[in-house]
Amino acid sequence: MTATRETRGKAKQDAELSHEHEHEAKKQKVETRGRGSKGGKKQEKHDDDVEMDVDEKSGNGTAVEDIVDQFEEFVDELKEHCSFEELKSIAEENGITSDLPLRMLLIGLADQLFYGPLQTCPLCESHGTHAGVICDGYHYKCSGFISEWTMCNYISSDAQRTDGSLKLPKKLKNDFLKQYEKTHDASKRPTRVLAAGKKPFLGMKIALSGRLRQNQSAYKADIVKHGGKVADAIKDDVSCLIVGHLDAEGGGGSAKMADAIEKGLPIVKEEWITDCIKKKELLPLETYDLSKNMPGESDIPWDKRPPGEEAAESLMAELKLVGKRGVYKDTNLEEEGGKIFESKGIIYNCAFSMCDMVAGINDYAIMQLIQLPSDVLYLYYKKGRVGDRFHNSERLDEMDSHRTAVKEFVKLFEILTGNAFEPWEREKKFHKKPMKFFPIDMAPGIDARAGGLGVHQLGVVAAHTQVDPRVAQDLKVLMSQEVYRFAMLEMGVDAPDLPTGNLTEFHLHKCAEVLQKFAAYLNKPETDELNHERMCLDFSNKWWSLVHTTRPFVISDIETLAETAAPTLESLKAISVASQLIGDLTGATLDDPLADRYAKLGCQITPLDHDGEDFKMILNYMSKTIEPVKFNDTEFKVSLQEACMIDSSGTSSLKDLEKMSNKTLIWCGTRTSNLLACMKLGMPPASIQAPVSGYMVRNTHNETDLFMVYFTFRK
């Protein structure tokens, strides 16, 4: 590499995981049962009813705070003297999963070297597998996996340690560890006290700033008493900054606040301290975060913002990646004539997603080779959470040659996925690996959220078209950006960093397979509640890895599947078809874009005469089937303004249907579905049959699955 161009965010090595990001992940654990809990119930975050007998001293009589200091020093030394590969070899030697992020593996191994080995996971043993337990300072968690998509959901506030010490690999040549093994006396090792009970701030350094309701010296005494330390300045090891409301509302003015904003540290309300002490547990910092109230551009991840704020930003956000040949917008290279590099039939542009709610991971990744008109190649890479600019990894590197660029691209693909690049790109051969990304197979077109008509174009386009004005009014809506933005917003799959509205048939088929298997499982009776919870976690992680969302959740029954995942898949199918048809309408290359796309639609749309029998029939049908809706003191009714007859080349003609002895009424559509794909290809069958409550129909038998179902009537 001869040069490096900086983009937003700091470039980081892929193997590294920042302390802040890891700390954030801890707060998002899907908390499940620990030892002795009953199926179907979540384990308590901490045993609040159990007071710690050990207050000032622990184990061998040393003060708890001193032991924590010694442990932190040991972690720093271990990080300095041991490589990631050496840590992985130690983990494998002791039955601990090595496919963990660096920070998690480092803390987990340091704990067992310092405090003693932990027993294996009881949950995995009950399912016939074996995996080691690790401690992150807050909980004891299993390091194993339910599958390649999901970490084991065992979590507990207590765990048994074994006698002896961790085994070091015989081939390991590390003087620091060899010396530690000789000098460390296992019989005198201290007892670990987690950050809970009377010591919720153990291992934390907390900074104070500004005008607080309580005297700062009083807060300092409380923090120290409950296991924490007070930092006088903002450094890398500081956990958070406590400020008063007046300082936060004023946008920050102190040097500490400016430093905290620059480093991306949480800036939280002072109530966090008192609430942690009162509840005897470490509460999530995000709940008390004041960053969102500060002026300026927000850098809070979308999943940490209020839903209304996230929705508003989603509707206005620029789509940064539009498809397989789209240059990521933040690189600014498209303005210089940059295009995605292609060679020997391969397009060097990949997007990835990974969701593991147990591990607290919900990330996306982008990597692409961008070729400028001067034939210079740049490798762009980004990884992180939607909206989280402070913690996302991002870099843009100028490459020496085409050969070097391709080599680096292939290497990065293997690091992110654990798979070879060419078998995936040419033959779609891919095997998901634990804690690795899964590729999002993008189509070559442009996502309709970016290629559709903009708001400023709608009136002009509809007014200057040869298409029938009544038809044009419908077409301009179906070919606008807004209808797709709103639909994907409602489904929660609206991340601007991924072209979720422009997916290939292969990817959508993969989604359908997961959905169908999930539905088949949920339709069967399950007596083992523990197994049901694990299966639902695993299926949900698969689904949200394939269909990225900023707010993943566990789908645990067929009704939730039918109300959320099923209509999302059907809508994404339709939107992907619409994206291919619409293309890019934002430019001024066409005199009549509506007429051009109408011709490509392959569908004849004929407005009905308001005095005709067909129009009157529809009016009569609506009057008898759709009830007025009352909200508070206001009553809402549906009125019919226009009705059109559609003759699509993608389905049988009306004359052919009239000849059939069996009559099938196809009921198609949800709030988030798209009519354009149905007009282009006809009305497809739903991916799953999952009946739920139907639409409002009076005096008729009606059942539907949230997208469509076939009603069959005999004459």
UniProtKB/TrEMBL annotation:
Keyword Repeat: no
Listed Basic and acidic residues bias regions: 1-34
Region (Disordered): 1-62
GO cellular component: a single term: nucleolus
GO BP annotations listed: double-strand break repair; protein poly-ADP-ribosylation
Residue intervals of the WGR domain: 337-437
Catalytic activity, as annotated: L-aspartyl-[protein] + NAD(+) = 4-O-(ADP-D-ribosyl)-L-aspartyl-[protein] + nicotinamide; L-glutamyl-[protein] + NAD(+) = 5-O-(ADP-D-ribosyl)-L-glutamyl-[protein] + nicotinamide
PARP catalytic domain residues: 592-715
Annotated ranges, domain PARP alpha-helical: 464-583
Main EC class the enzyme belongs to: transferase
SMART domains documented for this protein: BRCT, PADR1, WGR
InterPro entries given in the database record: ARTD/PARP (IPR050800), BRCT_dom (IPR001357), BRCT_dom_sf (IPR036420), PARP1-like_PADR1_N (IPR049296), PARP1-like_PADR1_Zn_ribbon (IPR012982), Poly(ADP-ribose)pol_cat_dom (IPR012317), Poly(ADP-ribose)pol_reg_dom (IPR004102), Poly(ADP-ribose)pol_reg_dom_sf (IPR036616)
Location (main, coarse): nucleus
BRCT domain: residues covered: 196-290
E.C. number: 2.4.2.-
Subcellular location: Nucleus
Listed GO MF terms: NAD+ poly-ADP-ribosyltransferase activity; NAD+-protein mono-ADP-ribosyltransferase activity; nucleotidyltransferase activity; zinc ion binding
Keywords: ADP-ribosylation, Glycosyltransferase, Metal-binding, NAD, Nucleotidyltransferase, Nucleus, Transferase, Zinc, Zinc-finger
Known role: Involved in the base excision repair (BER) pathway, by catalyzing the poly(ADP-ribosyl)ation of a limited number of acceptor proteins involved in chromatin architecture and in DNA metabolism. This modification follows DNA damages and appears as an obligatory step in a detection/signaling pathway leading to the reparation of DNA strand breaks.
Family: Belongs to the ARTD/PARP family.
Protein name in the entry: Poly [ADP-ribose] polymerase
Organism in which the protein naturally occurs: Ceratodon purpureus
Lineage: Eukaryota, Viridiplantae, Streptophyta, Embryophyta, Bryophyta
